[in-house]
Design a protein that fits this description.
The protein is α/β, with parallel strands linked by helices. 31% of the residues lie in helices and 18% in strands. The protein contains 13 helices and 15 strands. The mean pLDDT is 93.
């Protein structure tokens, strides 16, 4: 089936407007730069979208897949700017956004002077009031996949122990959609950082088919040591599957992408084919690139994986595609402009693009030639 005729993928959750003033003044610290009472001359401001809805959603759009973006904004000038940016990618991309006059559009002011670590001034705005009523039947009708991103940055979704987030996923599951969840790393000293995330995940994961956190996010939420090893990823993924998810995908940064699946799979994810997807353990090493920026790379990796799921691709090439889209993303300073069409990405994968090496004798190359590795717990039915 041509990708443009596939059912839409719904990408919902956190979205914000990033305001990035050009700062050329060189100082050795932020304290020297921001002096009380002093006027700091800056250049033009760059406006960009941030958050999972924009990063994952626009990456899917650039790949060529039909997508619906469901984020919540205020009825204010920043909301107008955000919608205008989405419209430049495609007029239809603002169609499913939720505008609420009772709240403000989320924004970040990014202070990024040369040679100094960035400082973010962030307003959560409408993201904090996002709840189950904001997911409406028209968002889900006729879609195939529902992906939600960044609930740790959305107060209503974590301050009740996950009840509201569970309701959102119950809606999507009741509509017959494959469900996917991505997280964000909360500040340990914040309200979100003090949430019992292990308990929240036990509540929500039975409604989630595909759980796609980063290694560090998952380690924080489960109280694990973050040693970034495949053994630790395997242990945490096992917990995720026992908590109720069918597929756990762990983003491991420059190492690559880890996958562990349950067996048997639950409906509707079981439609992918249990003989290919059940009881799998895979790892996709990163592709070699000259990285320019890593903003949104994990979100774009998720877009690649969801593109594979939407096309009913087997797990080995789906993992390879996911890491390829993430690799293309880091070749540009922003989240999305490095992402190519699905056809161009797959063509690049076929033309000698080298993978990073994972020296682990317990993992063996998949016979399909995708470059994905089979783990010691892989139990594909053959």
């Amino acid at each position: 089936m041509p990708i443009k005729t596939l059912p839409p993928i719904v990408v919902a959750g956190h979205i914000c407007l990033d305001l990035i003033p050009e700062i050329t003044t060189r100082k050795s610290s932020m304290e020297e730069l921001l002096v009380p009472g002093k006027l700091l001359s800056v250049g033009p401001v760059t406006t960009a979208t941030g958050g999972a809805v924009a990063n994952t959603g626009l990456a899917l759009h650039r790949l060529g897949l039909p997508v619906r973006l469901v984020g919540k904004i205020g009825v204010d000038p920043f909301g107008d700017v955000l919608l205008s940016i989405l419209s430049r990618h495609g007029q239809h991309l603002k169609e499913y956004m939720v505008a609420d006059p009772r709240t403000a559009t989320s924004y970040s002011i990014v202070l990024n002077p040369p040679g100094i670590d960035r400082v973010f001034l962030h307003c959560s705005g409408a993201n904090d009031s996002f709840g189950a009523p904001d997911i409406r039947p028209l968002h889900l009708a006729g879609a195939s996949i529902f992906h939600f991103g960044y609930p740790p940055l959305m107060r209503r979704l974590y301050d009740d122990g996950g009840t509201e987030l569970e309701l959102i996923f119950h809606k999507a599951r009741a509509a017959g959609l494959i469900t996917s969840l991505d997280m964000a790393h909360p500040d340990p000293d914040s309200e979100a950082g003090r949430v019992n995330w292990k308990l929240l995940l036990r509540r929500v994961l039975p409604q989630v088919d595909i759980f796609q956190p980063s290694y560090d996010e998952l380690a924080f939420m489960l109280g694990e040591d973050a040693d970034s090893s495949l053994e630790s990823a395997a242990r945490m993924a096992k917990w995720v599957l026992e908590a109720g998810a069918s597929i756990c995908v762990v983003k491991m940064g420059a190492q690559g992408l880890y996958l562990r699946t349950a067996g048997p799979l639950k409906a509707p994810i079981s439609a992918l084919g249990s003989n290919q997807w059940a009881n799998r353990q895979l790892f996709s090493p990163c592709w070699q690139v000259d990285a320019v920026g890593t903003t949104g790379a994990g979100d774009c990796t998720i877009a690649g994986f969801l593109a594979g799921i939407a096309q009913r691709t087997p797990p080995e090439p789906a993992m390879a595609l996911a890491t390829a889209v993430g690799a293309c993303s880091v070749e540009a300073p922003d989240a999305n402009s490095g992402v190519m069409t699905l056809q161009d990405t797959e063509a690049r994968m076929r033309t000698g693009w080298k993978r990073c090496v994972l020296p682990n004798p317990a993992w063996t190359p998949s016979p399909d030639g995708s470059g994905t590795l089979l783990g010691p717990a892989d139990r594909r039915e053959r």
